[in-house]
Amino acid sequence: xxxxxxxxxxxxxxxxxxxxxxxxxxxxxxxxxRGFILIxxxxxxxxxxxxxxxxxxxxxxxxxxxSKTLGLASLILMKIGIERFRQIPHKLIKLSLLLLCAIFxxxxxxxxITPDTLALEISFSVLISLQLALCIWATLRKTKKLKNYxxxxxxxxxxxxxxxxxxxxxxxxxxxxxxxxxxxxHMLTYSFALIAxxxxxxxxxxxxxxxxxxxxTAKLEQNYHFMDAFLDAIPLPxxxxxxxxxxxxxxxxxxxxxxxxxxxxxxxxTTEVVPKKIAELIKNHDIAMxxxxxxxxxxxxxxxxxxxxxxxxxxxxxxxxSSGKIAGIAGAFIDITERKIYEAKIKHLALHDQxxxxxxxNMFYAQLKKSIAMAKRxxxxxxxxxxDLDGFKSVNxxxxxxxxxxxxxxxxxxxxxxxxxxxxxCRIGGDEFTVLIEMxxxxxxxxxxxxxxxxxxxxxxxxxxxxxxTSASIGIxxxxxxxxxxxxxxxxxxxxxxxxxxxxxxxxxxxxxxx
Length: 515
Known about the structure:
- The protein has 515 residues and is an alpha+beta fold.
- Helices cover 61% and strands 15% of the residues.
- The protein is built from 16 helices and 12 strands.
- The strands form 3 sheets. A 5-stranded antiparallel β-sheet has the order 2-1-5-4-3, with helices on both faces. Strands 7-8-6-11-12 form a 5-stranded mixed β-sheet, with helices on both faces.
- A hairpin with a 5-residue loop joins strand 3 (296-303) and strand 4.
- Helix 3 runs antiparallel to helix 4 (91-113).
- The protein is rod-shaped, with a radius of gyration of 48 Å.
């Protein structure tokens, strides 16, 4: 190989190495690794390719294949690096790189057939210039307003044109006497202009990346301020926890309910800001969500800043990051204490008598069916007392319904006092009451309870400042002796009650088949 052409190839190798090394330094110093490293590796591959081409007379023949392979690899790395640098795949970049690959491959092909060193050198020069031009174009495209970095990139492009022009001019005009001083001045101009162009390109690229980073940071800060204001405007307590279950963001409502300033909650776990008992429950729910990724919705009691435990409904969802992994937990809760109170009141009204406060007909039949089922399973007996007040109608007629309600409330209190805690006293309508006695040893025990009820209800009472008196006729039916179903047992006790009335009222009567 001619010593001058070898010198030119070594020159191109050093230039490519300088470009790659400079870009590596910039990427590490400025901590901008996205795309820069791949582009610098492309230049380093091209540098080795030039070096192998220059040294092929001293190396085996397969070094030529390695040289061509590294040259093509530089194009591929350049393409990937540019797309990663901008994170915008572009068809023109791909087409340009395909064209460069074709030029590069064809130049090697014709070199094998006709070793034209001038054509080979020109192809190398055009190739490296087009690569840098492509980088400059990829960085400049889609810009609307000129800034400092754009002037720097334009300057890089001008230097690139100068470098390429100087080299091509020198190679075309001085190809027969390439050892002259004028020729090497043009070559040095090419080298320095190309390296300066690469400096300008990297400087402008880094400055653009810094500007884009600052713009993104400003947008993120604006979004954070907006999100904080938006969360504080929400009246419901809202929170966000990371994977370590530490609070990373809460709104003002959450801070007020906890009674703790926001800055004293952020960065802490639930166990550090709420009582241990409820904190363990919340922690278990959080761990389960991080493991399963399932949304959660549950109710629990939570201590508020007023010192009371409120009933709350908690709703939580896993926060999924851009990689598709669970990065934390976002949630909110609603104070449902009033709703629970209303639900309890509605349930109480549905199952209790509004006048006496005793269980009503609905609850009586539900309890009776349940008690019969338990008695049947455990093989014990039940006693049902059916009570009807004697003379209650005259109290309503003589003193009015208010006096009658007062008497009913008195009867309800006396009935609750007379029965055992295990027994159930109910008002099933009007002046009719029932008492369900469970697990007694002997019918005589039932008589004792019934007698206590009869004497207690027969005592005088005051109804709206009017003295009034009533008594009770009590019918008793036993399970399973008298009936095996709830309906039949009530009918049997009702018949026994009417039998007690027929015997003169204020009596106790057991059911039998003759009634």
